[in-house]
Write a structure and sequence with these properties.
Layout (H helix, E strand, L loop, with lengths): L1 H36 L2 H22 L4 H31 L6 H8 L1 H13 L3 E3 L3 E2 H4 L1 E5 L2 E11 L8 E9 L6 E11 L2 E4 L18 E9 L2 E8 L8 E9 L10 E9 L7 E7 L4 H21 L4 H21 L3 H105 L14 H170 L4 H147 L6
Antiparallel strand pairs: 1-12, 2-12, 3-4, 4-11, 5-10, 5-12, 6-7, 6-9, 6-11, 8-9
Amino acid sequence: MSALNKNSRNNELLTDINRINLYQYENQSLDTSYLYFLEDTYLENITGNLGKMEKLTESALGRGSRSISGDISAMSDTVKAAKKNYEEIRALSSERGFTKEDGEYQQFLSQDAEIDGIFTQIKDDRSWVDGTWIKIADRAKAVTVGGKRYYKLTYKNEVPDIGKRESFLARIGATAVDYKGDLFVNNIVFSKGSERKRVELSSLDEASLSGSYGDALKKMRIAKFGGKESIAVTSNFTKANNVWEEVSIKLPVGDYDIQNFDSVSYDLYIRAGSGRQLTAACAFTDKYDFNGALEKINADFSSYSKHVVEGNDVSKEAGDINSAFEEILSNLKVYVSDAKLKESIEGKVKEKLSQFTGMAEKDNEVLSLKTENNKLSKQLTGYTDEVRERIDTETNASKGRLLLIILVVLIASAAIIGTNTFVISRSMNRSVTRFRKTLSGMMEGDLMVRADESGRDEFSLFGKYVNEFLGKLAGVIQTAQNISEKVKYSGDELDSMAKGSSVTSSEISKAVEDISSGAGTQAEEVEVASAQITEMGSTFGQIVKNVDYLGSVTDEMKKISRESSVFMGELSDANGKTDDAFSQVVQQIHTTNDSVKKIREATELITSIASQTNLLSLNASIEAARAGEAGKGFAVVATEISQFAAQSSSSADIIKGIIEELVREAELTVSIVEEVSAILGRQQEKLHQTKGHFDVLEKGIENSDGETGQIKANTGICEDARKKVEEVIISLSAISQENAAAAEETTASMAELDGTISNLVGTAQELNSLADELDSKLKFFQID
């Protein structure tokens, strides 16, 4: 019993250990979920599970043996330490916040909208500053480079006090100038007193110059010119475009700290010729991307926060974020010239940096606790594995002792069972032998044999039931033998009666066949007469349909005739109105023709006035010429009047041509209208003749309609008589069919009766055979 109790305690202890491991695995899953969702409920569930694990370790301490109590105690301490760490992590995480909506993280982003707005203001404040435009023709001098003549302009401009800029532009442009040659820019120098800083063009590549632009810019490259690294530009200034065209060469100068200089200069070379009309200037643009830097800090901080939650080393990321803040602060000093604005934005950026520093300190604590928890988790797994192994060792030892005890019990039980089996077997063998004799007698048909029921075992009880069954079976067999004899006698009587009925059935069947044959002949003759009457009816029906159709056609023709007569009348009226309308058109055309003639007279008058005006203008011009300088104004007016006169004369000629065309068209229209009027007159006569023909046709249709009605009435009388004859024949046919059907039914009934009698004879014979066989079988049993 001691071994069993020990195994029971070990099993309960093993259950507690497994539950501790289960909670441990669940906490690992919850920790993973927290990484994705960052919700406090996951940390709350983890600390709750650790509390349950703590209770399980306390329970295990009371069940474990001395050999494993030390490990269980260590497990308890480990769980308590992990629980304490997670409670601290939960408190720090709640205060710090790992999403944008929580804790110090939310405060870290709270001023971003304002900071971003100020950065945008800094970006837009004098983001582009132009230098002075200079005409090349005013300051350029002719030089020879590589055997070719060029105009060289050394452009110089002050660097404006606007803070640092990332890009410098050399600009060449003009309006309505033809220049399609190359131009070269080199020797770009920023100066302050004796200090000079040259832009290294050799360090530039195609990407560095990609911000260059301009309508006149075709191609750009870095090339040697006059032994110096230069920017070579293929330009295309076109005078015909008559718009401002430009080439702007944009260079990155962020590394040159141009805010520390007070002037800039560059040399420009253009081919000798029309290029002297071009102008040159410079510009300063592009500031440090404060908005982008702020956005990058926030993005990096989001990634940094995620890595803190994951328990990763974030020291490098924290350093990068600190450097980004320092970069913004240092650039504010050189890009912002307004002291008040600079002070305001620096304060906000430093406040955001301070918030990050505070969160970074908490993050270090969280990382330290997470690292410790990882170690504690591994220790807990080691302790549980060690306890499980020791429990298994003790359980295996107990199993050996229990197996020996079970083996002894099994041997003793087998001996007792064997002895009892032998005694019971002998008693059963004697009972089986006696019962076998009883069954042998029953198989031979001896129903008088009886089993031994004197004993007290199950076979004696079964023998009693068998004896009762044999007594009842003997009575049943006796009764069956008596019934078999009576059945055999009845079968003989039934066979004799069936044979007599068969002869009578044959005679009746013959008589019915004769009746059926006569009824069938009568029915066929009635059907022939009925078919002829029906055919006559269909003929009458067709006649009636034809007459009806003829009547409907007549009515339709009558209707069409009337409608045609009305239509002819309306058409005649329409022709009359059309003729009147054409007469009015002719009258109107004559009126219009008279108006056109008046317009022609007015046009001729305008032409005459224009000729007189032109003559007066000519005289005025002559007088103005004589007047000399004093008559110049009058000469201009005279010229304008002459032009107006010429235009008036030209317009009058055009109007005159249009009027002539109108007159010709009007005369042609009058001719066409008169021809159409004659056609309408002839058409009116034809309409009167057609209307007379329709009147005659209408009278003929009415006479035909009367005759058709008479034919339809006579056909109706014939159809009534045919229907009465058809009804008589149908009645006669129905009677014949009923007689024939009754005869056929009688014949079928007699045939069925004959079959039944035949079956009856066969059944009687079969009954006799079965009675003989039953009697033979029953004689097997011995009941006397």
